[in-house]
Amino acid sequence: MREATNLSWTDTPFGGARRPFTDRTPLLAAFSLQATGHSPASAAAVYLPLPRTRSLRVTDTTVRFGFHALAAEQPTEIAAVTASLDALLVQARRQAAILAGHRLGDQLAALTAASAGQPTRGITAVRAAWQNQPSERGLARLHDTDTDTGPGPAVLADLCTSHDLVLPADVPPAGADGCWTATQILRQLVVYALAIALIAARNADRYQWNALHLDAVVEAAAWDQLTDLPPRLP
Description:
The protein is α/β, with parallel strands linked by helices. The protein has one domain. The protein has six helices and ten strands. Strands 1-5-3-2-6-7 form a six-stranded mixed beta sheet. The chain has a two-stranded parallel sheet with strand order 4-9. Strands 8-10 form a two-stranded parallel ribbon.
């Protein structure tokens, strides 16, 4: 299994040892998954610190975020990816201020189908909540970017354009099928999860920007984690 992260303690992103955040900073957790087609089962979580009292204006060089991405390189590793994601979702639902995704319920259903009946407490709970979008006291507020444009499905790339987020020109559309290496998938999903996190943060009036180039933002945070890749997907 291939793994990439910039968190000091990957099992406790909400704990006091997390980086690059200060203690007790509210976090927005965003998830992006791939569990269909010829690509390996994979997942990425992005953690965006939320200002408490004002909207934060950011640029390509000032966005700070944590990430944790995993990809199966063999079919036998799907269970490990699923178990790790399940634990991350349990923590995010209990401790994040906002839990965001783009059609996350559908993505979780696909991953569950690929995991052959594996126990998935966190995945099951988030998937059920995603369908109803209830407000539950003490749990993260759910934000589905698929509903940001009103009725009908929204394409993530179109949402990025409308929110002044520039995707790398050679990153395929979310959900596109293709023969990608595990490392390429990791970078792709981190870009998607970061886009989802920023869209949700702007819609919550926590972040503002004029234009952000996601390849530059991710490269600054992940250059030492994805060392076998050029700055963009080939």
